[in-house]
């Protein structure tokens, strides 16, 4: 963002298995609570899913209005629309204030709604193609949730969807860059992912799900738990936020993105990709590695946790040993396209409250881990420059620096 | 850092054929590549036209990867990437660490989810592909392209449906312009699928015979498939290596109707805003535009609204700007559509020929501009505007121009 005006965060909208605000989510993370539990449906266990982070009592009408016609929105659309409403309210962009403005929306998602796509096709297979529902067809596209949310909240500005398990973080970078370039004024950016029987089956077949509870960075980690939810940041130019007297929660720093052509198969290659992405994010932020004082990791309990840490440590050098680390997927599960946004939301709340969540269950870290992790409990810590990293399923790596404001007197 | 960005390589896998030359000569000939669907039984749909890519052998193009390890959209994208790179004279990939790939799509790898669904319906869950999560979701397409070429710079998937190709080109343009990437591959890909066909058939949107954009008797779109990729690099680097330059990308605009999931805003409001933002960011006025590659699906509503939007932006000059839709020939290739249309814009800028709107028989008094009916035309193209619109109300316009010295 060098030479351009800063892009700041003025609000957060979160719908998660640990609460429907960033503050509630962060408090639950710090208290060591888990949004994970037994799968909500028996058939999920039969395919090999033992624990999942479902939003068991998600009631979209609470966020979108009791009289609202929610039929056009599938679960992914409802999650994103709910988070968008919360984000707009949190940042003070009431319907009245934003009249005449074109607010944008950039959302990451891996599957969009696999339940919708698969359900649409299965109906065609079983009942015949003339029995498919046009409303469902509109939601089969990956950008459906962002389109539905734009309609719901009348967001006529820049609208984009990014695809992938690292797309929540990429969406924040993409939106910030659009604002910095003067192409957008105010943009909601983050991600959404639903939990459904189809994605559980897909990940179970891939052998990526954990046995009991996922423990990021653990020596005996054996997979992740799937989670769901939506998280959006309200991003705007610093001058606009200051002029309207908005509360500033953070400033978006530099980003870096890399691809590992081995797609994670070659440990050295994925470590190098992480290191290159992090180094680029620091360079574009114009800060030294030592300035990073907290890391919100992508680590999920899966195979790549160690490579991610080794890549970060390669850039941070000696300071890596003492680097405070948060790994929210221990408690939220792997929320795929939403994950990066949840990681950033947790960092921002850590900056605001002065507490960094621990990693519950982490008693025996991977012996090769370069960080001396503090363990399961939250600790008093007020990060000023946080790093978030997000790894996709196929070699994608994204890194982002978030600067957190001084506490207000 | 802000660098000028040019297009130096084009790769196309299309229903008209494979490779830039075959594609362009087919488009200029006004030859429809639509016909009876062959990849599945279309008899239950009441319509049977499609625009499929025939005779495509991915093994003839892929060098590092086994085509069987990826879905059809990725195969077409990786082949088009190889073609684009060769076209740019970059077969020995320079600085792969700073090069990447941005792709767009509507359906990702739909044939993969169809196999998944067949296993579900048959209740044979142990038949679900163990690699489904690595074969179906949208980001696998740029991952397969980048892995094929050994690229380790930024990759991204922007699955904004039928405007996705333009989004991908726009994002890659930013990455090169700002110096984040040394050069980029950008484009879109989609595979022909019964999911897409069922949906559009159910909407009554598929034409019974031919796709006739802007014609008074237009009856709908025709689903298609394909991949289009462009090589984007800094002007200075292209000049330094003596590369052939097709066109410079000078700006883009993105907007959202926030109105309806599958229907365009009746006043073309969002589409006009995307065009206006593209012009504003290019420092150009509407008078500078010499050709418009229309979204032009051939559905009664899309084409009418698109003309309303064009008239909003170009005002009294609208009838003087040639506007054509290659969907009349290759159908609607979904996520590949605006990427293939971007290729056409580059070639129009490079050759001063504009492609026709094929199958045009009768002007529609309610929406009448210069649609370049049926015959390609020699026409000086200083600036070409590529317009694309999508489900979700996503609108994207990209401007391609001759390189000013």
Write the layout of secondary structure elements.
The complex is a heterodimer of chains A (409) and B (405).
Chain A: E1 7-16, H1 22-30, H2 42-46, E2 52-53, H3 61-64, H4 75-90, E3 104-109, H5 114-127, H6 134-138, H7 144-153, E4 159-163, H8 167-180, E5 186-193, H9 197-205, E6 226-227, E7 229-237, H10 238-243, E8 250-259, H11 267-285, E9 294-296, H12 305-316, E10 325-326, H13 329-332, H14 339-353, E11 355-356, E12 379-380, E13 385-391, E14 396-403
Parallel strand pairs in A: 2-6, 3-4, 3-5, 9-10, 9-13
Antiparallel strand pairs in A: 1-7, 1-8, 5-7, 8-14, 11-12, 13-14
Chain B: E1 5-14, E2 17-18, H1 20-29, E3 35-36, E4 49-50, H2 72-87, E5 99-104, H3 110-121, H4 132-135, H5 140-149, E6 155-158, H6 164-177, E7 183-190, H7 194-202, E8 226-234, H8 235-240, E9 247-256, H9 269-282, E10 291-293, H10 300-314, E11 323-324, H11 327-330, H12 337-351, E12 353-354, E13 377-378, E14 383-389, E15 394-401
What is this entry, summarized?
Chain A is α/β, with parallel strands linked by helices and 409 residues long. In chain A, 35% of the residues lie in helices and 19% in strands. The two termini of chain A are 29 Å apart.
Folded structure, characterized:
- The complex is a heterodimer of chains A (409) and B (405).
- Chain A is built from 14 helices and 14 strands.
- Chain A has 409 residues and is α/β, with parallel strands linked by helices.
- In chain A, the strands form 3 sheets. Chain A has a 10-stranded mixed beta sheet with strand order 4-3-5-7-1-8-14-13-9-10, sandwiched between helices. Chain A has a two-stranded parallel sheet with strand order 2-6.
- In chain A, strand 9, helix 12 (305-316) and strand 10 (325-326) form a beta-alpha-beta unit.
- The longest helix of chain A is centred in the last third of the chain and has 19 residues, at 267-285.
- Chain A starts with 6 loop residues before the first strand and ends in a 6-residue tail after the last strand.
- Chain B has 2 domains: 5-240, Peroxisomal Thiolase, Chain A, domain 1, CATH 3.40.47.10; 252-401, Peroxisomal Thiolase, Chain A, domain 1 (3-Layer(aba) Sandwich), CATH 3.40.47.10.
- Chain B has 12 helices and 15 strands.
- In chain B, helix 10 (300-314) links the parallel strand 10 (291-293) and strand 11 (323-324).
- In chain B, helix 2 packs across helix 5 (140-149), helix 6 crosses helix 12 (337-351) and helix 9 packs across helix 10 (300-314).
- The longest helix of chain B is centred in the first third of the chain and has 16 residues, at 72-87.
- Chain B starts with a strand and ends with a strand.
- Chains A and B meet through helix 5, helix 6, helix 7, strand 4 and helix 8 of A and helix 3, helix 4, helix 5, strand 6 and helix 6 of B.
């Amino acid at each position: 963002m060098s030479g351009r005006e800063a892009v700041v965060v003025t609000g957060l909208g979160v719908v998660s298995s640990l609460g429907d605000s960033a503050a509630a989510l962060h408090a639950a993370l710090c208290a060591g609570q888990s949004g994970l539990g037994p799968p909500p449906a028996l058939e999920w266990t039969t395919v090999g899913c033992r624990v999942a982070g479902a939003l068991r009592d998600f009631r979209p009408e609470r966020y979108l209005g009791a009289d609202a016609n929610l039929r056009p929105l599938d679960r992914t659309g409802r999650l994103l629309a709910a988070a968008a409403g919360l984000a707009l309210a949190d940042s003070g962009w009431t319907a009245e204030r934003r009249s005449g403005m074109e607010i944008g929306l950039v959302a990451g998602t891996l599957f969009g709604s696999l339940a919708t796509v698969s359900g649409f096709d299965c109906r065609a297979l079983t009942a015949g193609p003339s029995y498919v529902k046009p409303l469902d067809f509109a939601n089969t596209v990956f950008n459906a949730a962002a389109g539905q949310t734009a309609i719901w909240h009348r967001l006529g500005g820049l609208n984009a969807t990014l695809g992938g398990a690292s797309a929540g973080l990429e969406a924040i970078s993409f939106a910030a860059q659009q604002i910095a370039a003067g192409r957008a004024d105010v943009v909601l950016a983050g991600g959404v992912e639903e939990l459904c029987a189809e994605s559980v089956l897909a990940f179970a077949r891939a052998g990526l799900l954990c046995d009991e509870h996922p423990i990021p960075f653990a020596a005996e980690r054996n997979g992740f738990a799937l989670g769901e939810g939506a998280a959006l940041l309200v991003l705007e130019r610093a001058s606009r936020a200051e002029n309207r007297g908005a509360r500033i929660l953070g400033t978006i720093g530099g980003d870096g993105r890399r691809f590992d052509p081995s797609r994670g198969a070659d440990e050295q290659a994925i470590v190098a990709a992480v290191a290159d992405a992090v180094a680029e994010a620091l360079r574009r932020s114009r800060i030294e590695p030592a300035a990073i004082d907290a890391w919100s990791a992508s680590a999920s309990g899966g195979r790549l946790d160690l490579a991610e840490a080794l890549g970060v440590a390669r850039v941070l050098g000696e300071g890596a040993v003492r680097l405070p680390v948060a790994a929210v997927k221990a408690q939220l599960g792997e929320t795929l396209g939403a994950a990066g946004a949840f990681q950033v939301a947790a960092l921002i709340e850590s900056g605001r409250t002065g507490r960094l969540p621990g990693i519950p269950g982490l008693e025996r870290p991977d012996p090769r881990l370069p960080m001396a992790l503090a363990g399961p409990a939250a600790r008093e810590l007020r990060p000023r420059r946080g790093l978030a990293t997000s790894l996709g399923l196929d070699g994608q790596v994204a890194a982002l620096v978030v600067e957190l404001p001084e506490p207000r007197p | 850092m802000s660098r000028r960005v040019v297009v130096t390589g084009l790769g196309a896998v299309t229903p008209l054929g494979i490779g830039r030359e075959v594609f362009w000569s087919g488009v200029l000939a006004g030859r429809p590549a639509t016909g009876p669907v062959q990849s599945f039984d279309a008899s239950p749909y009441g319509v049977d036209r499609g625009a499929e890519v025939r005779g495509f052998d991915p093994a003839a193009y892929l060098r590092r990867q086994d085509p069987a390890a990826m879905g059809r959209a990725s195969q077409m994208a990786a082949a088009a990437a190889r073609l684009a790179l060769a076209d740019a004279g970059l077969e020995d990939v320079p600085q792969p660490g700073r090069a990447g790939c941005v792709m767009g799509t509507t359906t990702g790898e739909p044939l993969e989810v169809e196999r998944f669904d067949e296993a579900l319906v048959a209740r044979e869950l142990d038949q679900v592909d163990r690699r489904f999560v690595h074969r179906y979701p949208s980001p696998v397409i740029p991952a397969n392209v980048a892995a094929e070429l050994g690229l380790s710079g930024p990759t991204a998937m922007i699955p904004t449906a039928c405007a996705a190709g333009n989004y991908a080109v726009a994002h890659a343009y930013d990455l090169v312009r700002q110096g984040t990437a040394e050069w980029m591959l950008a484009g879109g890909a989609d595979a022909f699928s019964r999911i897409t066909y069922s949906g559009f058939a159910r909407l009554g949107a598929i034409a019974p015979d031919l796709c006739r954009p802007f014609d008074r008797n237009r009856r709908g779109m025709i689903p298609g498939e394909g991949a289009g990729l462009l090589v984007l690099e800094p002007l200075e680097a292209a000049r330094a290596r003596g590369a052939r330059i097709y066109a410079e990308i000078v700006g883009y605009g993105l907007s959202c109707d926030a109105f309806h999931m599958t229907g365009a805003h009746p006043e073309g409001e969002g589409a006009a805003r995307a065009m206006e933002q593209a012009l504003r960011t290019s420092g150009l006025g509407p008078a500078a535009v010499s050709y418009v590659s229309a979204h032009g699906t051939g559905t009664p509503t899309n084409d009418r609204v698109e003309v309303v939007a064009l008239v909003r932006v170009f005002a009294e000059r609208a009838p003087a700007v040639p506007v054509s839709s290659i969907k009349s020939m290759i159908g609607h290739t979904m996520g590949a559509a605006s990427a293939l249309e971007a290729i056409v814009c580059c070639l129009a800028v490079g050759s001063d020929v504009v492609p026709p709107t094929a199958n045009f028989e009768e002007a529609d008094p309610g929406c009448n501009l210069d649609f370049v009916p049926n015959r390609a035309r020699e026409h000086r193209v200083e600036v070409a505007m590529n317009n694309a619109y999508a489900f979700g109300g996503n609108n994207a316009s990209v401007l391609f121009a001759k390189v000013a010295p």
